[in-house]
Write a structure and sequence with these properties.
Layout lengths: L6 H13 L6 H15 L5 H4 L3 H6 L5 H4 L7 H22 L1 H32 L9 H6 E4 L2 H13 L5 E4 L2 E4 H15 L5 H15 L3 H12 L24 E4 L19 H5 L3 H20 L1
Helix pairs in contact: 1-6, 2-6, 6-7, 6-9, 7-9, 7-11, 9-10, 9-11, 10-11
Amino acid sequence: MQRGFQLGLLLLVVQLFQEGLGNIPAVTLAVLGFNVYLYMFPAAPLLKACVSLQHVYKYKEWRRLFLSPLHHVDDWHLYFNMVSLLWKGIKLEPSLGAAWFLYLLSVFFLLTGLVYLLLQALLTKLTEDSDPLLGFIDVFSHSNECAVGFSGVLFALKVVSNHYNPGGVTYVLNIRVSNRFASWVELVLIYLINPGTSLVGHLAGILVGLLYTVGPLKTIMETCAEFVSSDVTIPRPSSYHSSSGASGYSGTRRGNSEEPRHAEDSTTDHTSDYTESYIAGLTEEEQIELAVRKSLNQRGKREK
């Protein structure tokens, strides 16, 4: 695939070497590498990979459930999602164990897409009912969006991470938030500041995470694992170091399912005034803030 200069991809490589490849857990590194590979050599064009109720349910294109999380709109979309995966994997994978972390990623990978479709079906029903109380949300837009990106899985992982560290705090755009509410605050703030991201996709991730932490999903997964192998070790993670990062610049992007969203039309990240070393050295919440600033600057330029 022909691409121009990929600053986001370059910064991701810098970030990986800053962390040290030997310090990155195996499953996390493998999943990250697979996402990068599919960005460089996509399995399908974005319009054929994005997931929506119309394409999956109406046209029976079920493969989109597997393609959508692994495809990204542009290099910045990939960068923020993969850096978020990197930090979450470094925290969660050693605590849960590589096998369980891979199992968890696989289940979240599939369930976020299914929950996303259920939410779109609900929004479609609300659109038909024309509820005036929902005027503050563009329900029709969300019920017809077609999304790609790994951020649904990342939001689910964030819920799990915060569940095991309930007393910690997260800074979302410099706002100090308890880990218990961080995912919800980030969901709302990102939607208000950057409506180009998929509110439904992020919400689906949060709901899947809650199904695991306070719902029946973990028990079901344990039962299935024990059925497959009686020697399986169920992880009992203890509280680890305080989680102070957000879920990354939530990367699920949405677009009209009928028209392609070009990279320049998608809300991307970082201003050109910052050097590569400066960007790569930022914390996750600082990167989110910088990404939002870039998004607002771009929006202002388009309006002029």
